[in-house]
Amino acid sequence: METFAIRSTDDGARFELRRHNEGHLVAELHGRGLDASVLVSAYMFSGFADFFGGIATNWKGWKGAREWSALEGEMNLKAHSDRTGHVYLSVEIQDGAPPRWQLNATLVLEAGQLDRLATDGREFEESITSAA
């Protein structure tokens, strides 16, 4: 799988993750008046599929936040849920350590999207780790 993509159900904002070269991915955020991208290390890219799989499995909601981060911290995902089947996915991207800039956007997901995201997340992670 070349690209992993999520579209927010409330405003159409989107998050995309795709391979850039052998060692890096590109994470992109797009929304009203917003277009940003950052290179993300593909080194030790793991847990991404489990993050989305866990969200899909627990679609009725959970307490607290579920989190996943790229090894070098240039991309961070945090999910919260409500009891009506909505997931609020905070996507943070940043350039550099310490960050020269940082951007955070929250995407609204509905229960009907979650199984597909779990499947796509697994396929994307497998494509990244098998190429390493």
Fold-level CATH name? Transcriptional Co-activator pc4, Chain A
Order of secondary-structure elements: EEEEHEEEEH
Order of adjacent strands in the largest pleated sheet: 1-2-3-4
Number of domains: 1
CATH architecture level-2 label:
Roll
Alpha-beta classification: alpha+beta
User: Which stretches are poorly predicted, pLDDT < 50 over at least 5 residues?
Assistant: none
Number of helices: 2
**Tally of strands:** 8
Amount of helix: 10-25%
Mean pLDDT score, rounded? 93
Biggest pleated-sheet summary = 4 strands, antiparallel
**Strand fraction:** 35-45%
- The whole-angstrom Rg is 14 Å
Please tag this protein with its features:
2 helices, alpha+beta, 132 residues, 8 strands, 44% strand, globular, single chain, Transcriptional Co-activator pc4, Chain A
Provide an overview of this structure.
The chain is about 25% helix and about 45% strand. The chain contains two helices and eight strands; from the N terminus they run ββββαββββα. The strands form two sheets. It has a four-stranded antiparallel β-sheet. Strands 5-6-7-8 form a four-stranded antiparallel β-sheet. A hairpin with a 4-residue loop joins β6 and β7. The protein is globular. The model has no long low-confidence stretch (mean pLDDT about 95).
Topology (SSEs and partners):
Blueprint (H helix, E strand, L loop, with lengths): L2 E5 L6 E6 L4 E8 L2 E8 L6 H10 L8 E4 L5 E7 L4 E10 L5 E10 H21 L1
Summarize the structure.
This protein has 132 residues and is of the alpha+beta class. 23% of the residues lie in helices and 44% in strands. Strand 7 (86-95) and strand 8 (101-110) form a beta hairpin.
